[in-house]
Specification:
The protein is 38% helix and 19% strand. With 310 residues, it is α/β, with parallel strands linked by helices. It has a single domain, classed as TIM Barrel (Alpha-Beta Barrel), CATH 3.20.20.70. Strands 2-3-6-7-10-11-12-13 form an eight-stranded parallel β-barrel, surrounded by eight helices. A hairpin with a 6-residue loop joins strand 4 and strand 5. The radius of gyration is 18 Å and the shape is globular. GO terms for molecular function: 3-keto-5-aminohexanoate cleavage activity; metal ion binding. Pfam families: BKACE. Its cofactor is Zn(2+). This is 3-keto-5-aminohexanoate cleavage protein.
């Protein structure tokens, strides 16, 4: 599909549920840290903020609406960025837990993983010499024997409860080519809202497709075949693959996603001190490629979102 927009949407995934406190001192854990980093990322140029919550006491992933409520309203008051709440949570959460806050907040956008999959960073445990909290090591090592669950029934329920009932649109997270076909199935079933699909093509997660540029080209060609001109895509490169894969995606006509959920680094051996550092870096790259950065309101128009006041 040829480029259909003049500007590029930068998304920022602020903290996620994969990395643990021992991996980086700059990973935001508390509500204040998450809010501060999200606001700074928006000021740096992120039009969409993808948000997870963590237990304020020890940084473990949390689905508690009371924790979300300690930072989401503050972010919304301080920025005009699109608020994107995860429905993925973590591999240890039930669907009911993962949906609790999105159903309360009814945001403009939510993430939606397009299938069940092995999803793991367990080899990273071998590189950690000192853990900050007792939960971290078993959490990372335990990923080897867990799956992320999103069955067809789970996805159908999310589309109904959030999409149809709340007017929320989705960041469709596709970790492999098969996830594009899953998305096409729901399109064929008439369960997706009108307007462009926003497809996040993800490379580099153990259990999903590799971060090779050839794979990204193949995923885009597959999406072109399945969805024609009815989609916009974004690119997420996990870990050290973040900036190179995003640059390829932008050249192919896509949007980009950065943030400490996806990578803890700014460059080789250099931990990012904030999400905003990554936003500023990819923005520099995009602007050197003569690409313009979309504002939040431009992103809303491009993705047909219901608006921050809805």
């Amino acid at each position: 599909m040829a480029r259909t927009q003049d500007k590029v949407i930068i998304s920022c995934a602020v903290t996620g549920s994969v990395h643990t406190p021992a991996m980086s001192r700059w990973l935001p854990l508390t509500p204040q840290q998450i809010a501060d980093q999200a606001i700074e990322a928006a000021q740096a140029g992120a039009a969409i903020l993808h948000l997870h919550a963590r237990d304020p006491g020890d940084g473990r992933p949390s689905a508690d609406p009371k924790v979300f409520d300690q930072f989401v309203p503050r972010i919304r008051e301080a920025t005009d960025a699109v608020i994107n709440i995860t429905t993925g949570g973590s591999t240890r959460m039930t669907l009911e837990e993962r949906l609790a806050y999105p159903l309360q907040a009814r945001p403009e956008m939510c993430s939606l993983n397009m299938g069940s999959m092995n999803f793991s960073i367990h080899p990273a445990a071998r590189r950690i010499q000192e853990w900050r909290y007792d939960w971290e090591k078993p959490y990372i090592e335990g990923m080897e024997d867990l799956i992320f669950r999103n069955t067809f029934g789970d996805i159908k329920r999310i589309l109904k409860l959030l999409g149809e009932d709340c007017g929320t649109r989705f960041e469709f997270e596709c970790y492999d080519v098969g996830h594009l076909y899953n998305l096409a199935h729901f399109l064929d079933e008439g369960l997706l809202p009108p307007g462009p699909l926003f497809i996040q093509m993800i490379g580099g997660i153990l259990g999903g497709i590799g971060p090779d540029p050839e794979n990204l080209v193949f995923m885009k060609a597959t999406a072109d075949r399945l969805f024609g001109d009815r989609y916009r895509f974004s690119v997420l490169g996990a870990g050290r693959h973040q900036m190179p894969l995003l640059t390829v995606g932008a050249v192919l006509g896509g949007n980009v996603r950065v943030g400490l959920e996806d990578s803890l680094y700014l460059g080789r051996g250099q931990l990012a001190k904030s999400c905003a550092e990554q936003v500023r870096k990819i923005r520099r790259i995009l602007e050197e490629l003569s690409l313009e950065i979309a504002t939040p309101d431009e992103a809303r128009a491009m993705l047909h979102l219901k608006g921050r006041n809805a």
